[in-house]
Each structure stands twice: as C-alpha cells, then as structure tokens.
Specification:
The complex is a heterodimer.
Chain A lengths: L1 H15 L4 H12 L12 H50 L9 E7 L9 H16 L5 E7 L1 H10 L4 E5 L9 H14 L4 E11 L2 E10 L1 H10 L5 H4 L1 E3 L4 H77 L1
Parallel strand pairs in A: 1-2, 1-4, 2-3
Antiparallel strand pairs in A: 4-5
Helix pairs in contact in A: 1-2, 1-9, 3-9, 4-5, 6-9, 7-9
Chain B lengths: L2 E6 L4 E7 L1 E5 L4 E4 L6 E13 L4 E13 L3 E6 L2 E3 L5 H17 L3 H22 L3
Parallel strand pairs in B: 1-7
Antiparallel strand pairs in B: 1-2, 3-4, 3-5, 5-6, 6-7, 6-8
Helix pairs in contact in B: 1-2
Classes of the chains: A alpha/beta, B alpha+beta.
Chain lengths: 323, 133
C-alpha cells in the first residue's frame, strides 16, 4: 500500500511539479516512520500490519488449543462420571469427617503439569495453605504431597521444608486405576499419617470447578472414633467378617478407600483442567478478535490520513505553482 | 422381599438392580446373603459371586475388594468384575494355561506371588464361564 502510494505520488510530482526532492523525501519519511517533529503523529501502516498479523496468528493458536481441550475433556468426562460412584459407599460406611482432630495431617495437592488453564492451580494451592493454617497447633504437624508441576512451583517457594513427595507427569498415559493404586501404595508406604486430606478441583460443569477436600482417615483413627461414637459410630453396628481381627479389615478398607478416592480426585482434576483451559483459550480468542478489530480501525485511519496528506501536498504544490 | 445389589469397579458400574439373594466369596469362606441380613462389612476375595434372580443363578467373576451389606442393600466394590456370560470360555482357558506356565517359570518371592494371583484370577474366570446353570 505504502509503496504504490509512493509510486503514484512520484509520478504526479514529476508531471505537475518539478521534482522537488524535499517534498519527495518528506513524503517518504512521513510514510515510513513515526513523525513527531512535524506535528503529524501517526504510526506507520507497516507496523500496524505486522501487529495485526501476529494477533491473528495468536487467535488461530488459541482457537486450536480450545478445540483440543474440548476433545480431551470429552474423553475424561465419561471416565470421571463412572468413577464417581466409587467413593460413595465408603462415605456411607465410614462417613466423611473433615473435622476430626488429628496430630499428623498430610495434605495431597493435585494440580496440572501444563499451564494456560485459568486459575484452578492457584485455587488448589490457596486451599492447601488455608488447610495447613487451620490445622496448625501445638503438636500438630502438616506435610505436603504434591501431584503436578504447577503446585510444586508455587508451594516450593514458601513451604520447602514441609514437602514430602512430589510427583509429576501423571497424564502421560491415559489415567487408569492400576496406575493410581500403585501411586497410592507408594504414598502409603512412605508417609506416616493420621488423616489424609486430598485437595482437588471437582468438575461440576464445563464452566464451574469447585475446590474440594476429601478426608481419608487412617485405620487407627477410625477405630478410635467409631468406639467413641459420633458420625463413625455407625461402623460399630456393622459386623466385620473375613480376616482375623477387625483392625486388619479396617486397614485394608482404609487403603482401598484411599486409592478409590485418589482415582476419583485425579480424574476430576484432569476434567477441571481441560474445562478451565477451554474457557481460558476461548476468552483469549475473543480478546484477540477485539484487538484485531481495533487494530483494523487504526490501520484504516492511518492509511486514509497518509493519503490525505499526500493529496494536500500535491494540491498545495500545484496551486503554489499556478498562483 | 428383594435385595438391591450394586457391583462397582473403578471404571464402571457392573450391576445395579434387584436380586433375590447372593453368595459372596470372602477370605476364608462363602457367605450367603438373603433379605434382612444383618449389617456387615466384609472383604471379598478373588472368586465367583453367584446371584439368584427369579429362580436362576447367574455368575460373576470378582477380583477382590469389599462388600457392605446394609438394610437390604448390598454394595460390592471390586477391582474388576466380569459377568459369567460375558467371558469367552476358550479365551479364559487359554489365559489359564498361560498363567499356569508362568507360575512354573516364576522365580523369586514376588514373581511367585504375582503368578499365583494371576493363576487364581484366570481360574475364577474359567469357572465363571463354565457354570452357567
């Protein structure tokens, strides 16, 4: 555009006016740099065009990312819904009592490995920190187990001492129960705990993710609480069969409960991650579109202003010659 | 009077409807559950679950887990469950033979234990596919 305008201008100048080098120079300078000294302030069309091209590319990329996230979401969502029925019998049998007083708390924070997924990782980390503050007491200790890179980056800055275990690259292979139960086994072997609190984002719909805490109590605490009565008191009314002692069964039960709850939590978090990424990419595509609109207006204004300036110069030059 | 039976695995729900009674394989025995059973929580071993429905017995192979018997409502959570009618007898037989061969080859305590478990699972599947009575 600028080149053809220059060419046109050059031809007109040579036919109407004797080639005035100052005019030519001024015109070319005006069209290719920002010009503040002349009192005419506008950006060159070249720069605006470059910016438009890069914004359009970014819009294409974010649109593609949104579609990829949508397809991944569909895959994980059906698995998640099937796994929801898994932990309900445990809650019916053992109750979910987050307020049980325990000495050793272990907080398992589940987060994603990749970024660009909105604020879900920050919410998980905030909830974990709040949990820790809540449970801090004279002889209570809290440890972290972190799944996923993003929470690790955030928690390592202020709670480096309290992190027991860091696991990442969970989603390299599609999530299945065997993998999660092996992970749960690992955790159970290495960590002493009275209560495990799993912090994750529950997927309630494509636009809403609720930070949730699931509590799994260790078998000793379960025995203590069930004998004391309260919400776990119902457990006593159940006869426990199989195995020699009640505590052996309770231990197995607690381990099974932990792996089931972990499986559900990891799936729900994966769903929330894809959903959050979808909405983040969607809003950034829309932003890019709006930016593109504004840039197009600026571009057109710039173009028209430069054409007007040329015309004015030509006409004033011509009239100066005549008159 | 009927019992409401629910068999769940981590990947899906295998059974969710009413039955007349079941026979559940636990660690050291098999227990039969009829309506109005006492509330019980028990571990479930690798074995065959027999379901009585309208004067017919159906089989299901279970791979270990837990069972909770409430007020006429049974919830069974297992690692994997397959209906007897869904198991292909030839394929189950072949898996059994492979498992037996692996057991003979196994060395070291851990491999022996794993091979034993695989053998029991394969045997359960073969039995479940055979007893359709």
């Amino acid at each position: 555009m600028a080149m053809s305008a220059l060419r046109r201008e050059g031809r007109r100048l040579t036919s109407i006016v004797s080639p005035n080098p100052i005019n030519l120079l001024r015109a070319s300078v005006v069209s290719s740099e920002e010009q503040t000294s002349l009192g005419v302030r506008y950006i060159s069309t070249q720069i605006v065009r470059n910016r438009m091209k890069s914004v359009k590319n970014i819009q294409k990329i974010t649109k593609a990312m949104k579609m990829v996230a949508a397809s991944k979401l569909r895959q994980v969502q059906s698995k998640t819904e099937n796994s929801r029925g898994l932990w309900q019998p445990f809650t019916a049998l053992l109750g979910d009592s987050p307020s049980v007083d325990v000495k050793k708390n272990v907080i398992i924070t589940i987060s994603s490995d990749k970024g660009l997924c909105g604020g879900i990782n920050t919410t998980s980390v905030k909830v974990s920190r709040a949990l820790r503050k809540m449970n801090d007491g004279p002889d209570c200790e809290t440890k972290y187990i972190i799944l996923g890179e993003k929470a690790k980056l955030q928690l390592i800055r202020d709670s480096k001492m309290d992190i027991d275990l860091c696991i990442s690259e969970l989603q390299k292979n599609p999530l299945n129960y065997t993998q999660v139960s092996a992970l749960a086994d690992d955790i159970l072997k290495n960590v002493q705990f009275d209560a495990l609190r799993i912090v994750f984002n529950k997927f309630s719909s494509v636009v809403s993710f609720l930070p949730t805490v699931s509590t799994v109590l260790s078998p000793q605490i379960i025995e203590r609480e069930s004998e004391a009565g309260g919400s776990l008191g119902e457990l006593d009314s159940y006869e426990i069969e199989g195995g020699e002692t009640k505590s052996e069964i309770l231990q197995n039960l607690a381990e099974f409960q932990f792996s089931c709850v972990m499986f559900n939590a990891v799936l729900e978090n994966a769903c929330s991650e894809q959903g959050a990424r979808m909405s983040a990419m969607d809003s950034s595509s829309r932003n890019a579109g709006e930016m593109l609109d504004r840039l197009t207006l600026t571009y057109n204004r710039t173009r028209q202003a430069s054409i007007t300036t040329e015309l004015i110069e030509i006409i004033s030059g011509a009239s100066a010659l005549e008159g | 009077m009927t019992l409401n039976l629910c068999v769940l695995t981590p990947n899906r729900s295998v059974w969710n409807s009413e039955v007349n009674g079941i026979i559940l394989p636990t660690n050291n025995s098999q227990i039969g559950v009829l309506p109005n059973h006492a509330c019980t929580a028990t571990a479930v071993d690798i074995g065959i679950l027999r379901i009585r429905l309208n004067d017919q017995w159906l089989t299901m192979a279970l791979m270990g887990g837990f069972a909770r018997i409430g007020n006429n409502a049974i919830t069974i959570l297992v690692n994997e469950a397959e209906r007897g009618s869904d198991i292909d007898p030839q394929e189950a037989q072949k898996t059994l033979e492979i498992a037996e061969a692996n057991l003979i080859k196994a060395e070291g305590k851990r491999q022996v234990i794993e091979a034993n478990l695989a053998l029991r699972r394969a045997r359960t599947r073969v039995e479940a596919s055979n007893t359709i009575s």
